[in-house]
Structure formats: structure tokens, C-alpha cells
Amino acid sequence: MTQTTDTLPLKGANLLVVEDSHDDWILMKQAMIRAGMAVKAIWVANPQAALNHLNESLAMGIKLPIMILLDLYLPSRESGWQLLQDIKALPEPVPMIPIILLSHSSDSSDISGSYNRGISSYLVKPSDFDSWTQLFQILREYWQETVALPNLNTNW
Amino acid sequence: MTQTTDTLPLKGANLLVVEDSHDDWILMKQAMIRAGMAVKAIWVANPQAALNHLNESLAMGIKLPIMILLDLYLPSRESGWQLLQDIKALPEPVPMIPIILLSHSSDSSDISGSYNRGISSYLVKPSDFDSWTQLFQILREYWQETVALPNLNTNW
């Protein structure tokens, strides 16, 4: 695992996880490690804590997350969507951070409503740990090793 | 290859490619086939043709593309960004179609400016055919086999 993480370009970057289920967070954290994600995951359990983290990072010049993994039902989908809108309304460069929605819901109105509010992609949460690990391997391969992300800490 | 494409959920879906270089389009088309992309790629060479395609699909009830691959310099980056804004201003459900930017440029202001205008992700074009194939394999794995896309043809 060390060899893999050492070669990744985004080693040490922050990733913000907004997730109200502690169980899901533990699963995600362990799956990220097993998948060789080179990022430092920061967990917040509710929308207000997410906004606080982003606002404090902006105010204090702390490194912003390169990506946000967002649960939808926090605990209602309206809470998740409100947070999405609040994040998009924060000062630059926060609105350009890609937001990946991760939800147990595969309801088509949840999916469409989330794309309509500016998410980058929507992923349905897997049901077992091996699938979580596989999901993070694909996220790593796509977002860490393939995509060009905005340089948040020099362009504002 | 047939076995792979037969099992993909989005087999037969349309993918819109906006690309003013015919050479790049030929490379992309061949790489998509080699990577087992199960989509039908529709090529347009300029912003106006892209808008015409989307408007005609809306007006005539033709299947909308599940994703848009967009070149940035068409021929200037302002043309690419204007097209991005024009697509986002079209009637529902067009604005929720994920837009993947594909450009030879790795300039950080091109990357940031594109995220600021609502792209889903930014990819730097590879320099050889094998890398193009590998890129489309990763795009297939992420967007076709992992992400939940909005159902464009029933939610409007």
C-alpha cells in the first residue's frame, strides 16, 4: 500500500466527507485505506459542520479539500440539496470543488435532482465492504490518476 | 469486445462529442471502440452544431446524449466556455447532462475556468493511441459501470 500511495500525485490532499452515518463513515474510511487512496479524509457529520469546515479553511488559509463526498439524506434529501446550494454559494474557489454524491438511494428523482444542483457525479452506496473498496479503487483511478483537478490553493 | 458491450447498462445510449479537430475525433472514435464503449458517439465540429443537435433532440423528442465530451479551444477557449454556458441555459433536462472537458491544454486557468462553468471533470488529451484507449477504458469503468446517471428521457 505504501508503494501505491507514494506514487500518487495528490498524496496528502484533503478530501471532505459529509456523512451522518458513523457506520458508513467507518466503512468508507477503511475502504479508502484498502483502496490505496492517498488523500487525507476529513469527516463531518452534518451540513453545518461541513460549512464551518469550508468557511474556516477559507478564512484561515487552510488547505481546501480537492473533492467533497456528500451523502444526500442528511437526514432528509432537502438538507443534502440545501448544503449543495450553500457550498456553491461560498466564495471562490469553493464552488469549483467537484462534489461526488454518495447515497443508498437509487431513486431517479434523487439522482436527477442532485445533478440539477451541480454535483459532478452520483454514486449509489455499495452494500458490502469489498464493493466499497472496489468503488474507492475506481474513484482513485478516475479522480486521482486521470482527471485534472483545479488548483484550489493558488488560483484565488 | 462483444461480450463486454453486451453487458453494459447503457448500451445504445448517445454520447455527444464536440471536437473541431477531425484527427482527434478519428482517434477518439477508434479508441472508444477498442475500449469497449457501448455508446453511440455523435460527432459535431463546432459550438453551433452542438446547440443545434441538442435543440433538435429536445424539439423532436429524440434521445438526448447521456454525456457530452467537450473540447475547450473551439477554436478559442472563450468559444468553448460560451458553449458550456449556452448548454447550461438550455431547457431541462439538458443542463443536468454531465460534461467532460477534453483538451490538449493543461493550463491551470483553463482547468479552473472550466470547473467554474460547471463541467463535471477535466481531462487532458493523451498523446498516443494506446493512452487514448486507456483513457476511454477508465471513462467506461467510471461513467458507464459505476456512476448513476440521470434518466434524461423520463424526468422532464
Spans of chain A with pLDDT under 50 lasting ≥5 residues? 1-8
- Helix % of chain A is 40-55%
Instruction: Kindly report how far apart the N and C termini of chain A lie.
Output: 34 Å
Q: Write down the overall mean pLDDT of chain A.
A: 91
- CATH structural fold name of chain A: Rossmann fold
Largest inter-chain contact set: A-B, 31 and 31 residues
Structural class of chain A: alpha/beta
Strand content of chain A: 5-15%
Describe the biggest sheet of chain A? Answer: 5 strands, parallel
Q: What is the domain tally of chain A?
A: 1
Task: Describe this entry's structure for a reader.
Chains A, B: Keywords: Phosphoprotein. Chains A, B: The modification 4-aspartylphosphate is found at residue 71. Chains A, B: One of its GO terms (biological process) is phosphorelay signal transduction system. Two copies of one chain form a homodimer. Chain A has helices at residues 2-7, 22-34, 47-60, 77-88, 108-116, 129-144; strands at 14-18, 40-44, 67-70, 99-103, 121-124. With 156 residues, the first copy, chain A, is of the alpha/beta class. Chain A has a single domain (2-139), classed as Rossmann fold (3-Layer(aba) Sandwich). A five-stranded parallel sheet of chain A has the order 2-1-3-4-5. Chains A and B meet through helix 5, strand 5 and helix 6 of A and helix 5, strand 5 and helix 6 of B.
